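Methods — Computational structure assignment.
A single polypeptide chain was analysed. Its primary sequence is given first, followed by the predicted tertiary structure written as C-alpha cells.
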Amino acid sequence: MSAPHTDVEQVEATNAAFYEALEQGDFEEVASLWLTPADLGVDETYHDPADTGVVSCVHPGWPVLTGRGEVLRSYALIMANTDYIQFFLTDVHVSVTGDTALVTCTENILSGGPAPRAGEELGPLVGQLVVATNIYRRTPAGWKLWSHHASPVLAENGEDESTDDTDDTDTPDDTGFPA
C-alpha cells in the first residue's frame, strides 16, 4: 500500500482528470475513469457485471442511475447536448481509507448549449453551483470512479422574510417565554 499523502495526490489527479475529460467532451477518457468488473478481478463471462461493483451516478435533478452502461449513456447524452462546459472546483476535500476514497467538492459550472440560430457559435452561457461527492476505488490500474452524486445548490434570494405583522403571542415576555 502506498503512503497516504501519495494516495490523496493520486485521487486528486484522477478527480481532476475526470472533470477535464468532461470539459473536453472526451467520452473514451470519461469511460476509462469509471470502475469496471474487470477492475475488481471479476470475470464477466461468469458473473453479471450489474451485480459486481455496481457504479452509480446522480446528476442534478436526475434519478439514480445504476450500472456502467446506464451511467455512461448519461454522459454521452450530456456531451451530445452541451457544446461548452467548464468546471471550477472549489472546497475540494479528499479522504482515503484503504482502497476507497471520498472526494467532496463544489462544482462551479459554466455551460452553453447549441446555438439558437444559424451562424452563432454558442447558445447563452449559464452558470450553476453544484455540490458533488465522488467515490473512488483503488484498482490495479489506478483509482476508478465508483459513484458520483451531484446536487444543485439553491441560491438565496436575498429577500428578508420578516414582516411587520408580528403577533404579540410569539414575542417572548420578560421570562423569555412567549406571552
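Note: Residues 13 and 143 are 9 Å apart (CA to CA).
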